[in-house]
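A favour between colleagues. Tell me how you read the following sequence-structure pair.

===
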Amino acid sequence: MQNTKELNMKKILILCLLSLSLWSTALTNVYSVTYKGSIDTIEENILEHFKEVKLVVPWKLDILNEFKRKGLEKKFGKNFNTSHLSSVRTIVACNGKFGNMIINADPTMMAFCPIRITLIEKDGKTTVLYVRPTSAPKDSKAYPILKKLEKKVIKAIEDANDFENKS
């Protein structure tokens, strides 16, 4: 009888651990999608779709080139870019309507607006990374606005790419 109880407890424990693992994976704060294609093409498509949904891009940065320009390649030597990325870029974008609504609802949530996406390229594939504003506290008055902003940004990223090229 004791063996049956132990076996059942082990099954319950395994199920709990699996559930916890799946739950934490589903709650990742970073949206990530990878496409077959150059960073130039993916970036251009995203910028076009950002315009369509009225996300204004006041700033872009080629991070990897900036690191090289600042001499970090020499400074870090063999420890520089050990992931062997061919390009790393970031885009900062803002929508005035959403920004104003967030300021009015909870100014501390402006940490999520303007939004920032990062693109990384390796081996002919480009990955788009975006910190989800819904990682903000759910009790914030700005949370419903942040949910809408996140949906708009992710839709623009996904619409900007041919899903046949998704890897």
Observations:
- The chain has one domain: 29-165.
- Strands lie at 30-36, 56-62, 87-94, 115-122, 125-131.
